[in-house]
Amino acid sequence: MAKDGVDPAGLNALVPKFSDLRGDDAMADTLPAMRVAEPFEALRDKAEAFTAKTGARPAVFLATLGPLAEHNGRVDFARNLFAAGGLEAKEPPVPPTDAGGVAAAFKASGCSIAVICGADGRYGDEAEAAAIALKNAGARRVWLAGKFEASGIDSHIFMGCDVVHELRMAQAELGV
Description:
Elements: H1 8-14, H2 38-54, E1 59-64, H3 68-83, E2 88-90, H4 99-109, E3 113-117, H5 120-136, E4 141-145, E5 155-157, H6 163-174
Parallel strand pairs: 1-2, 1-3, 3-4, 4-5
């Protein structure tokens, strides 16, 4: 057993053909410091500066499909994802019952970008109509919370997506 507690025989069994380079002349460069939160902090700082300059927090509209029990999980996911970049999420006061209601609620929100939030089962029947209605109502960009593809949907947010990229796109659309 070596002084550092590593058994060379055990290490060789784990990593075949391991060359033991320990000793007085063994050197390695220090790993650079990395802060995982740094890009999110920068995005939030930009949003705060935008708010101070304009008097309004940058916001995204959460276009809900179906009853609360069906869309609530994706609404919470989208709200938290966009909050990580300093964006406020606005919801309709009453869940819309059709694409026309989604468009009307979007217009009333004063937002210019939207995220469709619903259950997978609803997306096949309602997501495309909602996306097109949002575009016709003036939405510059429409995300969908999930992985369903349809006309009018520009981007997707989901577990494992590049969150920083999606937040940068949202801020760019909002002029942040």
